[in-house]
Amino acid sequence: MALGKRKRESQAQLWVATQHLRAPGHPFYQRLNQVLDKHGFDEFVEERCATFYAEGVGRPGIPPGVYFRMLMIGYFEGIDSEREIAWRVADSLSLREFLGYELDQATPDHSTVSRTRRLIDFQTHHEVFEWVLKVLATSNLLKGKTLGVDATTLDANAAMRSIVRRDTGESYEEFLTKLAKASGIETPTREDLARIDKKRPKKASNKDWEHPHDPDARITKTKDRRTHLAHKVETAVDMDTQAIVAVSLPSADEGDTESLPWTLVRTELNLEAVAQDPAARKHLHPKPMSEVVTDKGYHSNEVLVDLKASAIRSYISEPDRGRRDWKGKPEAQQAVYANRRRIRGNRGQALRRKRGELLERPYAHLFETGGMRRLFLRGRQNILKRLVIHVCGCNLGLVMRTLFGRGTPRGMRETFFLFSSLITQIFAPRRALSPPAVQLSGTARSSSPLAATRATKLRPSQIFPNGALATGC
Predict the structure, then answer these.
(1) Same domain, residue pair 240 and 267
(2) Could you tell me if residue 363 is inside a domain?
(3) CA pair distance 455, 119, nearest whole angstrom
(4) For position 175, what pLDDT does the model report?
(5) Nearest residue to 254 via CA among 212, 218, 228
């Protein structure tokens, strides 16, 4: 083979054949567009968003179908900021085809995306979320009987060093300097301020401090045990299908027992909206939201009494509170004892094991590989708009996993890589030397293709696109 050299200087061609400019497209996004077109996604969002556009006024806006697809790309590609989404769309030929843009057309800029998000209200975003739930129900991927509720925190787009006093508007450093001068230090140094701050109890209270540009953010401990400004996200997951039925954004300093009722109300409203579609209603359970599974952070007398009054069976893990006094609390005693019997039964034990798997996995897909653990937006409404469509991408990933074998483009790429590796090992010519061994669990080694498949913790049926899968990636 002759050695090729890269041209340092070249003259741009005047005419290029159009077939040489079109990309073959990504098979995942092609199939996703087929799913959206089958259920009339563009017609639905254009009808809902017609009131936010004006003919002949200003420059042309982003079509609603393109806007919502771009926010879904944030989940499928693991992109957290809208600026990076806009750059990725402009750079990728496959994503251009997914959005319906030719090479001579400019893709939407990030400022246009953010302005469109601000103009379209949250109710419209939530109607798109309900539309995706109906698609799940018609695909037999939503039951609604047993729901698992869990919460996590997202890093806010705000820094702790910028917080100010709610009463006076003083910054943290100005407040410490005032305390130092009151204690007799005329010109306090940074060491003096640090020493005074170290001795103060409850130095970062949400009752006293807030961020001037993001007052909805709250001071709390995040997943890495550090004190940050954060937002709390709470979701309700269908324990039978892993579909996310509801998502809410309570305050980060709000307890789980306080936010649970609002999440359940939102879940009930979403299931009622899905049940209005006859094609989706026949796949739902006759008694939706009849069971709720949570961790011990949601356990309280009031929560259990309210769930019992609503005819909802609770499977809430009970913390060790020692011997309790039930004098004057007969209703709470009955509710707590009934919940205790249920979680100790066979079904309760099975649901508790599934809770750790099915409630934590969506958070890994949404906020770790999905790229939204760190927020780039401020304000509860703005965050909720982006978050709801982000969850829509996760729910559509369930449909794609059923039809296509994988729920994200990254997962499909890994599937084809494993498939090609297996084919190469099967049809590779025999050599005089034995092939390299594959490391298995412990000290056992093997050189067979099936052993290599087991080493990756995937069954052979999981390698093929239409095979059974264990994860949602």
Answers:
(1) yes
(2) yes
(3) 51
(4) 87
(5) 218
